[in-house]
């Protein structure tokens, strides 16, 4: 599946702790923004529920709680708009948005939003799962 043309609109956005707008985003903020703008899926903010993006112990339970509401997708069956959950500091504390062709859109502290291959050395062993919001079943 090719990467959608609109993905380019989200490359190079600035990182900001608790960011929830195009002026600055953290990883959940980026996923939340794209799912809202491209798929009309509304997600909770969670911005007030963790101290900072390096608080894996606070973030992992939030991701887990949200993932319970979503459909778990078997690796290899993910599609554009699915959320990929990745381990950072030993916990599932980072998210990205699947675009296609094994690529995800994500953002990290000190790194602007970018498209990256999740099957590569850096990420493949950190993948904890793929999840599809119920709203995306319509697409």
Word description of this protein:
With 139 residues, the chain is α+β, with helices and mostly antiparallel strands. It has one domain (7-138): endopeptidase fold (from Nostoc punctiforme) (Alpha-Beta Complex). It contains two helices and eight strands, in the order ββααββββββ. It has helices at 27-39, 56-67, and strands at 20-21, 24-25, 71-73, 83-88, 91-100, 103-108, 111-117, 127-132. The longest helix is centred in the first third of the chain and has 13 residues, at 27-39. The radius of gyration is 13 Å and the shape is globular.
In short:
This protein is α+β, with helices and mostly antiparallel strands.
SSE diagram, text form:
Layout: E1 20-21, E2 24-25, H1 27-39, H2 56-67, E3 71-73, E4 83-88, E5 91-100, E6 103-108, E7 111-117, E8 127-132
Biggest β-sheet: count, sense, barrel? 6 strands, antiparallel
State the assembly state of the protein chains: single chain
Q: Mind telling me the CATH class?
A: Alpha Beta
Distance between the termini: 14 Å
Count the strands? 8
CATH architectural designation: Alpha-Beta Complex
Q: How many helix segments?
A: 2
What overall geometry do the principal axes of the alpha carbons give?
Answer: globular
Percent of residues in beta strands? 25-35%
Instruction: Describe the strand arrangement of the main beta sheet, using strand numbers.
Output: 3-8-4-5-6-7
The percent range for helix content is 10-25%
* Low-confidence runs: none
